[in-house]
Write a structure and sequence with these properties.
heterodimer, A: 490 residues, mainly alpha, 2 domains, 19 helices, B: 231 residues, alpha/beta, six-stranded mixed β-sheet, four-stranded antiparallel β-sheet, 10 strands, 32% helix
Chain lengths: 490, 231
Amino acid sequence: MFKHFIVLQWKSFWRSASLTSGLFMKLFMGFWALWIAFMSAVGGAAIFKLIKEKLHLEPLETINKFLIYWLVFDLVFRYALQKMPVINIKPLLLLPFQKNKIVSFAFGKTVFSFFNVIHAFFFIPFSIVLISNGYPVINVLLWNLGLIALIYGNNFLNIILNKKDNLIFIIGGIMIVLGGLHYYDYFNITTYTAPFFQGLYDTSFFVAIPIVITVGLLWVSFRSFVKDLYLDAGLATKAKTIKTENLDWLDRFGKTATFLKNDIKLIKRNKRARSTVLVSVLFLFYGLLFFTGTVETYKGPVWQIFAAIFVTGGFLLSFGQFVPSWDSSYYPLMMSQNIRYKEYLSSKWWLMVIATLISTILASGYLYFGWDVYLAILVAALYNIGVNSHVVLWAGAYVKTPIDLTSNKKAFGDKQAFNTKTLLLSLPKMALPMILYAIGYYAYSPYAGYALVAIAGLAGFAFKDAVFNKIERIYRSEKYKTIAAYKQKN
Amino acid sequence: MITVHNLTKTYTGNTVLNIEHLEIQKGNSFGLVGNNGAGKTTLFSALLDLINPSTGHIENNGFNVSKSEDWKSITAAFIDETFLIGYLTAEEYFYFIGELRGQNKADVDGLLSDFEDFFHGEILGQKKYLRDLSKGNQKKVGIIAALIGTPEVIILDEPFANLDPTTQIRLKKIIKDLAANPEVTVLVSSHDLMHVTEVCERIVVLDKGEVVKDITTSEQTLKELEAHFNK
């Protein structure tokens, strides 16, 4: 019976409308997966020595301390990235399959998920190093068994959590607070959790606890999945009651306001669009890696500009790259209405400008690291508004992948827009400001570097009309292809 | 009002539309019937410049639709759900279309109040996004949105499908009222022969992309059509 499911999966992959871009993306993702696996393996092998010789701590105890964070981050990552085990269930319901079979297949698929396997790449090398350093084999194996159980516990917990909308943010929030308290030595959660993980190693019967938990989670998620296999339960689309919004205050933007109002509703009301806002918030913190000097390679002055571009441009980069795909589900409507492309584009442009300004203001927290850092951010913001906002829209004109606004799970990869044109256009976004800064920095002084980037940003405004005209021409010449491409929903 | 010249559309060697000449007069109410795959939606899509014909062109009010965009301000259409913006409420959608067509809120409200019967209390003030409405109710929204801003050409693809009997009867009245206006040209396609013969002055039958019948509606039309499709 499983044979049928596998055949269906196989066909749905090879016959999907967006196979070519999908395949390319999958290769790309595959490359990253390999890279992450490789880095984890190296990390797992090296960390023992690192903790022992650099920090002069007991390696296993130290790892045990941080395992609680490891697990919670794993859960948050899964929630954001791991796709739910959905096979095309609706047409199967009427066929003579047992519901348990359908669910077991869906669950079975998750067992081999990258998110489960990746942990092995870290813990197996680490365990080998442990054993070679004279740790007893049995205990290390028990410890691993416990961890495997916990990882799979996360796997099934994620399936349960995915149905609840905001629970994960609460969990993530609590962990950030606990992490902060830990960092500033107010309260240390690990003193309570570390003995448990240590117990997995020390005490043989401890391993039963995670196994029981995992089996319990499996049972709960399995039951709830089976129970929800009804059109009006798990397979139903949720409809919340909502109210009509005015947003009349935006009318001061003139004709652009018509679209701007729509775009704001688009972001507020669609999961997929909301997640770009989340991404831009995450990028706000991206600069911490650079400006705190935590990562050795990022200490070079040129990397400061790189970081600053991301800090202020998170929304610009993640939202802008999918213009006009955000409107893909009603593109024929837009194309048969009396719309000036320029007004449509400038509403998107304003949206990105406003978001960049907000990010810049929020990024004032970086003042903590000195005026210099914030100056880099201001300059990058100028470059983002002046140059990147245009480049991003330009690159977006070549993107022809439809976006399913209501689903969040494809926000990262899969059908992502990925072609050589957009790749080429991503160069000026990142590399150009870094090069400009480097020229100014090494030729004269850091301030000359900032000045060069800022001038490029200001000069970008001069090209706004030219770029918009160019995009308009692309839109026109690609119109029929775009409409046809947007029609092909996966 | 609308003239089709030597229009063909071919997909990988498969001709789905082939119309040498077709002219639709201003103020006419024009019905398009045909089995699945006859090319009805393709013709409408070409008319809206949503697909690029392989040869030939269509003129709307004297403008070649693929060259100029000036026909857009006088043309409105509802083809399928891709003409709806799923994350808006019905009101927001109507106001959005209104703004695009130069109508303020009061204008739109004025128009909507004429169609309260048609909405049957299931559209306005529903606290639901369009994507959460039933297929029939979505269709009601799309049809009425196509009437905003007094367009001169109105194109409705299968407007009767998915509607309940009461709404079908009301829609027939709406289309007849529109057709009575000599300024307005209505184009409707349908699988329901009875409905089309009732609301359209002229009916064209498409078969495999070609015009096989062109009838001015009379008492016998329904019989004639039934005979044609009962082959």
